[in-house]
Amino acid sequence: MTKVTVIGGSGYAGAHIVEAAAERGLDVTSVTRSEAAEQMAGVRYATGSILDAADRAKALEGADVVVVAISPRGDMVGKARPAVAALAADAAAAGVRLGVIGGAGSLHAVEGGPRLAETPEFGDEYRPEALEMAGVLDDLRATPESLDWFLISPPGDFGPWVPGEYTGEYRIGGDVMLTDENGRSAISGADFGTAVVDEIESPAHRRARFTVAY
Predict the structure, then answer these.
(1) Measured between alpha carbons, how far is residue 28 from residues 119, 134, 148, 200 in Å?
(2) Can you give the pLDDT at residue 38?
(3) Which of 14, 28, 178, 181 is positioned for an S-S bond with 173, CB 3.0–4.6 A?
(4) What's residue 35's pLDDT?
(5) Which backbone phi and psi does 38 adopt, to 5 degrees?
């Protein structure tokens, strides 16, 4: 049975990944900095921080895949990037596959164009967070070949404000943001969680970033 640890398992993306993994019958551990208020049957819950070396070691211990679903907001501003880099080094040494939930801001609007976070249209409020997660992607691409990693960027419309419904369908893209015929880039939390678990169970992106959307 595949053993998966989700760091940030109580956040929007993390909770949907945990749920999808549990429903798929995987051995799931959710790690959060404080005790999770809502807990699912069949999921192991633990407290810990990606900022703490001992907690990072515990998250990796016995895991086949560790997924990081954190955001550089609040007291995590400026700390998420070095923390993921430290975990990546630990994961490479332990032989554990690493998955990271990135942001949409590091995607490109068109092939060869600037990252969305670097365009004038991108909101100033979210730019620092997006650029930090873009830095996480840059760091992962520079890691030794011994680290098996993937980073998945959600579409532009993704979050608790647009929860959507489970459809079981989605499209996969690379570094360019996916949009539908109306120009919208979106996916529900449930389908995003499914996409992540699909990648865990059937790896198709080794040392690569990809994106999903309807």
Answers:
(1) 38, 27, 19, 12
(2) 83
(3) 178
(4) 87
(5) -115, 130
Q: What is the 3-state secondary structure (H, E, C) of the chain?
A: CCEEEEECCCCHHHHHHHHHHHHCCCEEEEEECCCCCCCCCCEEEEECCCCCHHHHHHHHCCCCEEEECCCCCHHHCCCHHHHHHHHHHHHHHHCCEEEEECCHHHCECCCCCCEHHHCCCCCCCCHHHHHHHHHHHHHHHCCCCCCCEEEEECCCECCCCCCCCCCCCCEEECCECCCCCCCCCECCHHHHHHHHHHHHHCCCCCCEEEEEEC
**Annotated domain spans of the chain:** 3-213
86-128 pLDDT per residue, tens = 999 999 999 999 999 999 999 998 999 999 999 998 988 999 9
The answer regarding whether domain 3-213 maps to CATH 3.30.70.100 reads no
49: left (phi over 0), alpha (psi -120 to 50) or beta: beta
How many CB atoms are located within 10 Å of the residue 177 CB? 22
Locate 114 and state its tokens: 């600037």
Distance (Å, rounded) from C-alpha 116 to C-alpha 123?
A: 10
User: What confidence tens digit (pLDDT) does each residue in 71-86 have?
Assistant: 999 999 999 999 999 9
CA dist., res. 72 & res. 128, Å (int): 9
Dihedral Cα 99, 105, 111, 114, nearest 10 deg: -130
Q: Given the DSSP bridges, would you call strands 149-153 and 43-47 parallel, antiparallel or unpaired?
A: unpaired
